[in-house]
Amino acid sequence: MMKKFNLAALSVAILGSFSATAAADLYSVQQLETPANFRTWIPRDLNDQGMLALLSRLPLDTDIDLTKLAASTLSAAGIPSDVDLSSYELSSSQYDSLISLLQDNVSANLQNPRYGSNAATTYDGQTSRFISPLDQQVGFNRVASSSIDTQFHGLNNSNVFVGSTSSAYTELAHTYNPPAVGDTQPAAEQLTFHQREFTSRALWFNGSSYQLYTPPETAVLGGESVMFDINDNNVAVGAVSVAISPAAQEGIDACQEADPATSFNPFYACVWNLWFARQNTVAPNLSVNFLQPLSISTNQSIYDMNAAKWQLDSNGQVISVQQWGTLMDRTGEDDREDFSSYAFAINNNDIAVGQSWTYYDNGRDDFIGNPANRVKKPVVFIADEVKSINDNADYIWGSARDINDDNIAIGFMLKNIQGYIRYVGFSYDVDTEAFSEIKSFFNGSSIIPNAINNNGIIVGSAEIDSSLQVTRRRVGFVYDLNNAAAGLVNLNDAVGCDSNLFIVSADAINSQGEILATALEEVAVVNEAGESINQIFTRSIKLSPISGGEINSCDAEEQIIERQGAATGLFGGIAMLLISGLITIRRRWTI
Question: How many Å apart are CA 497 and CA 485, to the nearest integer?
């Protein structure tokens, strides 16, 4: 029997009344109402017309068939082993735990049913729409229990959205013959796994129709393609799978050679496990201090990926496609994993920026004791070239995240500062090749610029906590390249003191200076037992500049203390999980 969490069992009371548009000094605040059937909205992009691309995350109305879940998954969600699963009613916390555990990028068990956790969403300021073309869904109600994940990453000023979609999982029957125990041959087991036609397809959507774009390499798991941005010339950029990496091919060959009758995993599951392991790999060569075990996701695959540029017509039909390779070729026999490049943003001059695998210090083999030295670096894609933004050996890893029409690119690089690896923001003039670090709130404050508009205004996220602990509070910021002396502005100081939101990241900005941002809010929740508990929720907000505004000082001192205290409390374990997740699933998926 299908069991879903009963939304009626949960009542939510927001701590303190928060108006749809609150008074502010530099910005007015509009809190975007999260769809009722999702846990949260994640900001992705906005254009000059005020159209928004958002990611609806963690559905609240999924029917979960408990009878089909692995015992380990049920146990992890706190479901007793001696209950009747066909009639068991999930608590709110058990449902939340399960829907998180069953996310496609989290659940490594292909025997578990697959449930989609991401829904591409458009918002015009009044109405949100869920877009999942392969579910035949372009409307106002999500398809419940879909196994498809669809995401938008960017849009242009013609309200054309780009992103990616997976295909649906279907059941895969497999007969497993366990090995003999002495002279006894156990009976064959009938197992059910899940498979899909492809991992991802680049997606184009103009509000009424869609297009998908097939990558060059589709032989195993169907291949991968994704679009991250599109400009006003209908030129989109992203990445496509072009080949199987040497190491992955060895693993695939081993899967192929295994006897299907005596292998617990069918061939598809065997290869999918290779892909899943690489998706969750972290860089092994970036921690220089045991007090700071730096965990940077490498977003790897079984495929070599090439940055790609599509020239499209007004209907999304392909006029031409161009691929860019990497800064350097994969070297020797020692490095056999995937070697890729990705284009994350493009301006209206058709210059793109992104990230490429390469080798630290152009191949030096003594960095942090790692002979492979493979790192990702920020790059510019211009004409047929892949150009490095900075080759200084002080910088270890990085990515370009956006570029405006003045050909100013922004992004981050990692740097050893006083024995700790920190994120350092930068701006880069493509025309003059001038590179400048963006000073953060203090020396050693990690900073990640996310977007830049054509007026040179940069938004992003930076640390305001100077303690040496690993977990540091972050805030959204705005920074004017034309007034660098003013430094970063903490967006929490740019909105009214009565706001109950703590802004942790500014994610996108348009030509009018409107900012799409992520905030945390502490909410009083009444659970099934009638108890009031506090939970942390992420909120998407839109900030609109107020002419002549100034940084606030908060008339009442207690309001300042209240805001600061709430900010500190919000940064517990769950809040940091949310923030770490934002860095990898937000619009510029570039770490």
Answer: 25
Q: Are 110 and 102 in contact (CB under 8 A)?
A: no
Determine the average pLDDT of the residues in 257-268. Answer: 90
For residue 328, give the DSSP letter.
S
Phi and psi dihedrals of 567, rounded to 5? -60, -40
Token look-up 């209240």 returns: 562
Six token digits for residue 411? 């992004």
Highest averaged pLDDT of the listed ranges 120-134, 157-171, 471-485? 157-171
Q: And the tokens for 360? A: 């630290």
CA 534 to chain centre: 26
Q: Which residues contact 166 (CB under 8 A, 6 or more apart)?
A: 104, 116, 148, 149, 150, 196, 198, 199, 200, 201
CA distance 568 to 222: 45
Token pair for 255: 């899967």
Pick from 561, 557, 554, 556: nearest CA to 495: 554
Answer whether 188's CB lies under 8 Å from 179's CB: no
CA distances, 326 to each of 248, 367, 511 (Å): 19, 21, 32
CB crowding 482-500: b at 16 or more within 10 Å, else e: eeeeeebbbbbbbbbbbbb
Q: Is pLDDT above 80 for 263?
A: yes
